[in-house]
Design goal:
This protein is α+β, with helices and mostly antiparallel strands and about 190 residues long. It has 5 helices and 8 strands. The chain has an 8-stranded antiparallel beta sheet with strand order 1-2-3-4-8-7-6-5. The N terminus is likely disordered. It comes from Herbiconiux gentiana. Pfam families: DUF3515.
Length: about 190
């Protein structure tokens, strides 16, 4: 038996004849609805950012409650770089590509020959063995916080200062010492 002839019906006419279906929008309202949908999608894209999630590994003590205190205090920008989303607990990242990385919960340093200095109230051990990538690790705070900086993009002092408030949520238990402090040798006073 041959196929019966069908009459093609445009979706608009069909939708108008379906019980309970909404009538099609007039052309002007359709354009406004499309513009609103496009603007909403564009806004959502801007709010979520274009940069993908930074993949990091959590530090051994990332579950320490003190790390949660650090993470909730992280700034939106560090050294002028915007904050990124990370996929590991107790981490932070800034820049696209990421030029500042933070891990809370790294093992604290004991005595070391690496340089240790204070930046606005926070003592940091500096490892420049992979320059221009520098690794700064807090000294005298448990758990320790590690900050990795790409010196081709950001400077250490401004980045560490921007992270100061978050890091200071972990109480300081010890301070950097220099050789004179350890050996008990007096530091000469400069002549006027």
């Amino acid at each position: 038996m041959p196929h019966a002839a069908r009459t093609l019906v445009s979706p608009r006419r069909h939708a108008a004849t379906v019980p309970g279906a909404a009538a099609p929008l007039p052309a002007g309202r359709r354009r406004r609805a499309l513009a609103l949908a496009t603007a909403t999608l564009a806004t959502a894209t801007l709010l979520t950012g274009c940069a993908p999630t930074v993949s990091l590994e959590a530090a051994p003590d990332a579950t320490d409650p003190a790390c949660a205190d650090v993470i909730v205090r992280l700034p939106d920008t560090v050294a002028g770089e915007s904050k990124r989303t990370t996929d590991a607990q107790a981490t932070g990242a800034w820049g696209d590509p990421a030029s500042v990385l933070l891990h809370c919960g790294v093992p604290p340093y004991g005595p070391t020959t690496l340089p240790c200095g204070n930046v606005n109230g926070v003592d940091w051990i500096v490892d420049d063995s992979n320059a221009p990538t520098y690794v700064f690790t807090t000294y005298g705070r448990t758990p320790a916080v590690e900050v990795v900086l790409d010196y081709d993009v950001v400077g250490g002092t401004s980045a560490l200062d921007d992270l100061r408030t978050a890091v200071q949520s972990i109480p300081q238990e010890a301070q950097c010492l220099d050789a004179d402090d350890v050996l008990g040798t007096p530091t000469p006073t400069p002549a006027p």
